[in-house]
Structure formats: structure tokens, C-alpha cells
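Appendix B. Raw example, untouched.
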Amino acid sequence: MTRYYFNFRRGDEVSRDRIGMFLPSIDAARAEAIHAWRDLIFIGSQSAELACECEIQIADDSGDTVLSIPFGEQTRLH
């Protein structure tokens, strides 16, 4: 298993995940990130902050971003 880190970027500001999560694949990491986005969408809908241009950056143990999931007004998560 690989440890993946889920960093949150809003504009130029990045909040780094310092704990990470062991997952079997990048597909599992992507699914976890989408699940987190759904929670953020719900929270954002309560506070009217859904319009931000943000992303979750999935990083590996070396700190390299291996996948970015953008979020903004036009984003749809299925």
C-alpha cells in the first residue's frame, strides 16, 4: 500500500495533509478525495462558500502531486 496525502489548495494557499492515508491505489485515493469533496460541498452550501476555485492535490510519499481534483462553480462530482 502507498501513503497518499490530501492537500487542499485555495488560490495560492496550500494546506498540507501531514498524516496521509494508506490506500491500495491512486484510484482508491481519488475515490477518497471525491468523498471528501462531497462533505465540503455540503459544508459550503451551508455557509455560501461554494464558489471558490480550489482543489484537492493528492501527493505521494515524496511530496509530488500525482493527481489534482479541481473544484469551482462548474464542478460536478458523480
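End of appendix B.
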